[in-house]
Amino acid sequence: MERWIDGDENANQMLARVFMARPFLLPPPLHGVPLRVGNVVELIGPSPSAKTHILSQTAISCILPERWNDVEYGGLDRLVVFIDLDCRFDIMRLSEMLNYRIMEVEGVVDGDHRKTLYNLCMSRFLYIHCYNSFEFLQTLKTLHYRLQKEEEAHGISSLVLMIDSIGAFHWVDRATAFLPPRDSSRKNLFSQTVSEAVVQEIKKVTQMHPMLVIATKSTIFMDRYSAASNVAKWNFIKDNQQAERVSRNVTRNDQAIQYREYMPSVWQAFVTHRILVRASEDYRVMSNHENCSFYTLEWLVPRLNSSERLVVKDAGIFVD
């Protein structure tokens, strides 16, 4: 009580504490559940299923200002960290979607004005790519210092840490775990050890820079008739019995689709929310739109009783 009366925290500490306590809503399509900094959202689905598109649209909503030059943009006015483990991120697509978003709000305005806002937003998008688990862990270990510099330079804090394809190196690490290392000074990595280190480093970063974590993960789907025959194929995997067995997670569509979980249990225990995204083939046949793709988004954790149809257009993702 005395510490509270004395007021022993500055404004940044107060805001960090408030955001930790109060949930906030991200814009569509991640608006179904109130989220707060410290949550870890896993966005799963086959490739392609618009997972990176969803990250890009969420990032744009974060880096846009709430109000700029007396114009309302409705952004969150924060920094975003994007760690690309697939090394396939299309920065031009992000640029195109950002320009569409600016033009949607402003209409036809002075080109210099629009370019200044565009440059401001892009400077708030911190892009990092990694080619293996060593680089990924090195990035996480040094992320605190980079964020310190970026936050001081921009005068705003970070809001979201995005990891595109958290399982990108899982199978490579598994395959090379028992092979002689190419470099005698460096040991091979085990997937369980890597996941433990990744979780610990993310926890350290988010303690010093309170952020929401969103990670995409490609997954393998099996229908219910072939799932039983495929169980034997996965029995040789011994990373962790709980994490490596065939997942019982199913969709609500008469349990016709199952996906197999492959990430170690330490990562699965770290995840607080899970979203399933997959192509909506039936809906694509029903539509006559051109240059559009259609997907279904479903919250698995927490379980919601409804799903949403997403339309991916040149301007971004829209909830149908």
TrEMBL record:
Biological source species = Acacia crassicarpa
Q: Gene Ontology cellular component? A: Rad51B-Rad51C-Rad51D-XRCC2 complex; replication fork
Give the matching SUPFAM superfamilies: P-loop containing nucleoside triphosphate hydrolases
Q: Which CDD domains match?
A: XRCC2
One Gene Ontology term from the biological process aspect of the record: double-strand break repair via homologous recombination
Report what the protein is called.
Answer: RecA family profile 1 domain-containing protein
InterPro entries listed in its UniProt record: P-loop_NTPase, XRCC2
